[in-house]
Write a structure and sequence with these properties.
Elements: H1 9-20, E1 36-40, E2 47-52, H2 62-70
Antiparallel strand pairs: 1-2
């Protein structure tokens, strides 16, 4: 996303939402890497939830993560 990420409205909205919420980071590090969240089940269950950031500041839906985690079945030994 590099420099074009700073010109996107959603990025600025996410920044101000975090700032108003009291988030303060150290602003160290690379800063251009988008992240993600995966919930992976045991054995052949595979990926139960996948969330990839599309722009800086995208947040995963926490109830979806909990719902996916509850679907994990213990692997038979």
């Amino acid at each position: 996303m590099m420099l074009s990420g700073f010109f996107r409205l959603g990025v600025w909205q996410n920044f101000f939402r975090a700032w108003r919420g009291g988030y303060s980071g150290n602003l160290e590090g690379e800063g251009f890497t988008l992240g993600g969240v995966y919930v992976i089940g045991a054995g052949k269950q595979g990926v139960l939830l996948e969330h990839r950031e599309k722009e800086f500041g995208d947040k995963v839906n926490l109830p979806s993560v909990l719902e996916a985690a509850e679907k994990i079945k213990p692997q038979a030994s």
